[in-house]
Write a structure and sequence with these properties.
Helix Hairpins; Glucose Permease (Domain IIA)
Length: about 375
Amino acid sequence: MSASRWVWALAILSVSVGHTTVRAEPVDPDTLVVPEPKASPKRIAADEINQLLRTELSILEGVQELDMNMARRTAELERLDVQEKTVETDLLEMTERFDALSDKLDDARRSIRGRLRAMSQLKRIEPYQLLFASSDHVSFLRRQRGVRTLLDGDRQRVLDYRTQLAQWSESRDDLIRRRNNLRRTRETIAGLVEQLRTDREEKALLLEAVRSRAAFHAKLNQEMKGVNRELRDKVLMLRDPKRRGLRMHQMEGKLWPPIRKGQIIGRFGIRKNSRFGTKTIHRGIEMIPPASAKSDRTRIRNIYWGYVSYVGWLKGLGKTVIVDHTRGYMTLYAHLSETSVKEGAKVATGDTIGAMGDTGSLYGPRLYMELRKDGRAIDPEPWFKW
């Protein structure tokens, strides 16, 4: 499989990796110099997740680092895919030009070789031989001028050949640079593909460990308690009392859910783990699109008018958007693969704020949503009409 095909195969596999698509900068093959890729350290996914059980390391921080690395590597692969195609097309064109220049140089070399033999023979002719071969002085001068013109022309041919040879050498070096650019780009792509594969393998192993290993499960639950405290403080800090009051308090039972015809797979409140018997408090709901959904990219809708207070990464939640609906009401949309709003923007009911993903999630792609009033989480489900 070619390097460019690797990129698109991974793009399909990592559709839920969180990154914001950006337009790649144009590549100028005439000035591009791709450095030799550095060898990536050998990673063993199982060893790396076991390190997270050490008390000074956080499972949630480890997940966030994995997700951010995958986002960065996926974006870099997209950029390199564009670069590879540009460099590959340019190399084909430059190879054709170089081959044509080489053919011209070969023709010039053959012509010069013949003229050099002729020049060598002319140098053996002494002036008196021209004189004796001429019938008169005027004829001698004419022959002499003819020889000089011929020698001047041959000298110019030699100079022109040297110029062509210098141009050919410069083109050869430039072609080598372009070939190295393509080789190094493909080697860099291969290295990133391997790192991204390891990232995804590590996250899958971590997900399985949280589900099946008591130590991971207990540590994760403890960390999630800290996430709730941090989130409550952050929501309270993001409130802006200067914003004009909206009517969120009147909208209970009248709002459409953030995923069109979405299914709730995790409800608000206390949940009991069937494997370990532990009970945890969930301060939001988890949703997925209906089974009939055909698109790989699930659009997340803002449920009501408001102001975007936060866009970014949060520990345990991944890529997150927080919307201030004023009067103390705020909604949070987490585990997004990408966002389509900016902080400070005013958003209307139904506006797209991002796409569903699995950033920060240890249970696969889903939307995690919270509704908070004055920092306190309340059940969002009764606010929706189904």
